[in-house]
């Protein structure tokens, strides 16, 4: 039996989601921009999907802009803020996903914007005092700080950060790719201007997501072409993927509490099992704490001769987990997140186990058995 504990990288598509997508692929082939009835029917399907997502986020449907996923959504927010909204500075952090940090660095090179990196506290939380100091002076700014870190599960306080940004007149973007559909968002009251979503992190299809853009903010086109997505993103909409996204979004929200309880109990079992196996096991980012992202556990194993091979050996045992970022499972490169948050220890293997509603207690026990054999 294979155990899939790499759900922060991507998740299995839910059967209900596939069931919702197949009729769209088979029957709703019209171009949503066509004026005939075949096209108009597809347009209706897309706008229904947008409405259903917006309702669950308590925002207006016109605030949802479909993209190819989280990376594009992050790019759209940061590039749009610099190009269309006059931002001359980005404040972000070294622990961000590369979709944010590399985009910010690229804008620094191409547009000469100022790039300020906010410090973290020892536990991985953003140093909000430092953020406040950075915000107290400087040019027009967009702050980009993720909700939950995809590697070490540190969960930032979006209310607090967003309120500081508001008070300072800065825009606030948050990469919510790892928390969307695992936590509820009320965008009427959350002080954010942009948040990003990627369907494949919650049992939806790959290649689809969206950027939420607060009402009243107008971005220019990131992908030039037709006037789809109100001219922000040209190109014929991926109707079946949009339907898959909306379906996964609805299922996740309707069952959010029971999924959360189930996943939390699996994570607790894993933590208990690891503590039974090793005297000196540690959890990077305090990822075993209840106030961290409940889907992710980043384990720092005691020094062992097989540390460097652990990911590979676990794979041979049928356990899929990750050693690097969500997008580079199996990568042997060290993690920029662990290094920047000073959790990196060359003597110890750090592995990320990330859980979904499809995992079971038996799988946790199987993984623990495999870990015991690898580190024996
Ligand atoms: N942001 C975070 C925090 C992620 O974990 C990921 C995916 O690993 C992304 C962005 C990129 O999302 P996508 O794969 O949809 O481009």
Q: Helicity, in percent? A: 25-40%
Major beta sheet summary: 7 strands, mixed
Q: How many separate domains make up the residues?
A: 2
Oligomerization: single chain
**CA-CA gap between termini:** 21 Å
Overall description:
The protein has 376 residues and is α/β, with parallel strands linked by helices. It is built from eleven helices and twelve strands. The protein has helices at 15-27, 37-57, 70-84, 98-111, 128-135, 158-168, 239-254, 256-277, 310-316, 336-340, 361-374; strands at residues 3-4, 64-67, 89-92, 114-117, 141-144, 171-174, 194-198, 209-213, 282-283, 296-300, 319-320, 350-354. Helix 6 (158-168) links the parallel strand 5 (141-144) and strand 6 (171-174). The protein starts with a strand and ends with a helix. The protein binds pyridoxal-5'-phosphate. Pyridoxal-5'-phosphate binds at residues 69-71, 97, 99, 146, 150, 175, 177-178, 198, 209, 326-327.
Keywords:
seven-stranded mixed sheet, alpha/beta, 376 residues, single chain, Aspartate Aminotransferase, domain 1, binds pyridoxal-5'-phosphate, three-stranded antiparallel sheet, 12 strands, 2 domains, Aspartate Aminotransferase, domain 2
Structure described in brief:
The protein has helices spanning 15-27, 37-57, 70-84, 98-111, 128-135, 158-168, 239-254, 256-277, 310-316, 336-340, 361-374, and strands at residues 3-4, 64-67, 89-92, 114-117, 141-144, 171-174, 194-198, 209-213, 282-283, 296-300, 319-320, 350-354. The chain is α/β, with parallel strands linked by helices and 376 residues long. It has a 7-stranded mixed β-sheet, with helices on both faces. The chain has a 3-stranded antiparallel β-sheet with strand order 9-10-12, with no helix packed on it.
């Amino acid at each position: 039996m294979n155990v899939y504990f790499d759900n922060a990288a991507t998740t299995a598509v839910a059967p209900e989601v596939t069931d919702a997508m197949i009729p769209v692929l088979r029957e709703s082939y019209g171009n949503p921009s066509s004026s005939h009835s075949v096209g108009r029917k597809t347009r209706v399907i897309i706008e229904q999907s947008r409405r259903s997502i917006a309702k669950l986020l308590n925002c207006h449907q016109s605030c949802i802009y479909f993209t190819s996923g989280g990376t594009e959504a992050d790019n759209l927010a940061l590039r749009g803020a610099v190009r269309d909204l006059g931002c001359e500075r980005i404040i972000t952090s070294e622990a961000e996903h590369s979709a944010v940090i590399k985009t910010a660095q690229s804008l620094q090179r191409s547009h000469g914007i100022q790039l300020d990196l906010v410090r973290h506290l020892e536990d991985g939380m953003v140093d909000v005092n430092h953020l406040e100091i950075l915000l107290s002076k400087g040019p027009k700014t967009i702050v980009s700080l993720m909700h939950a870190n995809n590697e070490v599960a540190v969960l930032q306080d979006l209310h607090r950060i967003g309120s500081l940004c508001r008070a300072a007149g800065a825009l606030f973007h948050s990469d919510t790719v790892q928390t969307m559909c695992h936590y509820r968002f009320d965008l009427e009251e959350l002080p954010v201007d942009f948040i990003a979503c990627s369907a494949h992190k919650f049992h939806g299809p790959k290649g689809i997501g969206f950027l939420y853009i607060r009402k009243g903010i107008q971005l220019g086109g990131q992908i030039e072409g037709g006037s789809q997505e109100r001219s922000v993103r040209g190109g014929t909409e991926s109707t079946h993927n949009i339907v898959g996204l909306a379906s996964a979004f609805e299922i996740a929200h309707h069952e959010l509490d029971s999924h959360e309880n189930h996943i939390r109990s699996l994570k607790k079992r894993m933590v208990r099992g690891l503590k039974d196996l090793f005297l000196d096991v540690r959890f990077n980012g305090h990822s075993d704490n209840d106030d961290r992202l409940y889907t992710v556990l980043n384990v720092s194993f005691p020094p062992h001769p097989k540390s460097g091979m652990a990911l590979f050996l676990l794979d041979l045992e049928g356990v899929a987990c990750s050693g690097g970022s969500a997008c580079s499972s199996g990568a042997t490169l060290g993690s920029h997140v662990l290094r920047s948050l000073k959790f990196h220890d060359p003597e110890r293997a750090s592995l990320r186990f990330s859980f979904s509603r499809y995992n079971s207690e038996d799988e946790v026990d199987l993984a623990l058995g495999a870990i015991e054999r690898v580190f024996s």
